[in-house]
Amino acid sequence: MKRSLLSVAVALSLSATSQSFAARNDLPDLGTAAVNTLSMDREMQYGDIYMRVIRGQAPVLYDPLLAQYISELGNNLVAHASDVHTPFYFFMLQNDEINAFAFFGGHVAVHTGLFLYADSESEMASVLAHEISHVTQRHLARSMEAQSRSAPLTLAGVLGAILLTVAAPQAGMAALMGTQALSTQSRINFTRQNEQEADRIGMRVMVASGYDPEAAASFFGKLAAKYRYATKMPPMLLTHPIPESRVSEARDRANQYPHMHIAPNLNFQLAKARIQVRFSSYSAQTALAMFEDQLKNNSYAIKEAALYGQALALFQLNKHDKAEKIIDELRKKDPDNLFYLDTKTDLLTAKKDYQQAIDLLSSQRKYRPTSLVINTNLANVYLENKQADKAIPILEQMMYDDKNNLLPIQMLNDAYKQLGDKAQQFYTNAQLHALRADYRGAIDQLNFSYREATGRPLLIARIEAQLRQFRDAEEQMKRFQN
């Protein structure tokens, strides 16, 4: 059966959505230690646990181009932030709703819907800088400390409710109401204090990073106007309320900085076009009509991004020759652009011209050996060409470089399946289960792997070590639940 990198990424992003993430309130209880003694080590621990829960329940998007884009944008902002105590990890959720949220351990989630409403990279940066500031100012920990002064609480009730609130506002707010920790008014006031601080520090971070200070007011102003009379608010407006005063305060802050004219950013516009075609509720035909209308009326931000969107939509509609003609023209002007390279690889793979795709990616890999996009595409082409043995070392290195990325693990599982290596297949399945907080499933997979690993002492040693690690992690989860 034909497999493609796109189909693998989409399958992974949707595999955990049989039940709505927003409708479920089954996060693990995270212990009963005193809130005011929460250390950075514990914050990192909680962040890892919650990230695993999200992977198991939410439509995390593992598209390599978008992952690389959002990570580079986010880390550029972090590089200009103060009070950074943790590494940051930026990831995307495939969801048309407008939202972003941050939680312990430097984790920042961005809904794909943000790209549908943001018109510039500066507007996107204003949202990310705000969320980064929530992390650097330890607002979750401070919220718990404030609540602990009003009532004796456990981390289970407060942390679980707060984390659920930022991820799934309606369910989380209901949980917070049930804690009876503070009066409704005092909770709102403390939230506003956090929001004001994140607004202020976030603008400082985005300006230091080279973005337009007016973007924050323009983006939130657009949202406030759009939903002023709406009966159903998007998640971002539930967790980040926008009274008129907040928009005017953002404008006042922006006026304190020199006016900046920033040209449209190509990579942002390419990422937006990619989401519009591949990861939104738009049909391919609707997306194609939209981009063709932009090109006809010169209503695009950047022409190359509109052409790229047109090519992607044509590819989705199996009009490969037309798509390839556009991509080839774009690559003549910008041959190293990863967005164009990715689509060219998809087109060559669709034509089963595997060797040309391998040669193209291998030549690029000489100059960018750690590129997530190049390595993912090259490993995928090797798998398509039944050369799993060549894909495996690339995927293993990718796993080592980014332990949060499920895509290379899933592809590695496919590679071992192609080779008929059941022991390694079960072993990689165990890693997938563990990254989704399913330690019982991971241990079962390791036991299957152990039975298949007869005569392979090195693999047996790895399995035994992993079994101990997963059993310890399972016990830790149980302790957090008590």
TrEMBL record:
Its EC number is 3.4.-.-. It is found in: Periplasm. It is an enzyme of class 3 (hydrolase). GO terms for molecular function: metalloendopeptidase activity; zinc ion binding. It comes from the Bacteria. The keyword Zinc applies. Residues 1-22 form the signal peptide. Its cofactor is Zn(2+). Binds 1 zinc ion per subunit. Residues 66-253 form the Peptidase M48 domain. The keyword DNA damage does not apply. Its main location: periplasm. GO terms for biological process: proteolysis involved in protein catabolic process. Belongs to the peptidase M48 family. BepA subfamily. PANTHER family: METALLOENDOPEPTIDASE OMA1, METALLOENDOPEPTIDASE OMA1, MITOCHONDRIAL. This is Putative beta-barrel assembly-enhancing protease. It comes from Shewanella mangrovi.
